[in-house]
Amino acid sequence: MSRKKTLKSKGQTSPSTTLPAGRGKEQEGKSRKINSSGQALINGVILPNRPSLSNSSEFYDLAFKVMLVGDSGVGKTCLLVRFKDGAFLAGSFISTVGIDFRNKVLNVDDVKVKLQIWDTAGQERFRSVTHAYYRDAHALLLLYDVTNKTSFDNIQAWLTEIHEYATQDVVIMLLGNKADATQERAVKKEAGEKLAKEYGVPFMETSAKTGLNVELAFMAIAKELKHRSMKSPNHPKFKLHDYVNSEMKGTGCCRS
Ligand SMILES: Nc1nc2c(ncn2[C@@H]2O[C@H](COP(=O)(O)OP(=O)(O)OP(=O)(O)O)[C@@H](O)[C@H]2O)c(=O)[nH]1
Ligand SMILES: [Mg+2]
GO CC: one term (predicted)? Predict the structure, then answer.
């Protein structure tokens, strides 16, 4: 496999992936408009141009799109900032408007895997914007907040939405965030485990505040996507559930 330096021209596909030409169902005809600057608008929200996976100057071998989804306030933006910058956004909560993305290249068993991570707005009014991006996603990190029972109860609805808009083989992982907030905890870890088992998805508790399992969540996704795209009879099968269960740390630790 040759290591590529990415090209800057628009519309090029990555070595590992092709971008679907179409968009999510919701976007078709419904409330999609183009403004005078040529930008796409859904329900009045300006959509950022979806960057090509290869549109960066970083070296990588494989590239994938990962989406963060879940109710507003569960900690999607904080999780991404912790992963990308190793910092925690404490203080006042600034809700994401529309959608944003950050890139990070991980070294997975000597293969450079670039994750383009899309941070979506959890607020209901931006839902149609989020729908438009599901189809391009290779993996979804679905978050709830362990201090907010409603965000946990809404996971089922999120999964229904995912099954409607995302591709069939999208990798899904369930994360119970804010595991550091022991005093305010409203959802037991066992409840998260049970729900994840019901839906057959891997699960872990995370904390954007302490960094608990944050690196692991993204690394596990990167490993799974890498193994899927490099399938070869000589490589032993990667088992995402087993990897997560063996590497996961419980609350009280500060793995980052
Ligand atoms: N204690 C604790 N607080 C957290 C954690 N992650 C996020 N928060 C806090 O939760 C609030 C919401 O975090 P965000 O990351 O902005 O939430 P979001 O999911 O991006 O919300 P939307 O953009 O509206 O969808 C902020 O006040 C954060 O400081 C965590 O791991 N532990
Ligand atoms: Mg946000």
Answer: membrane
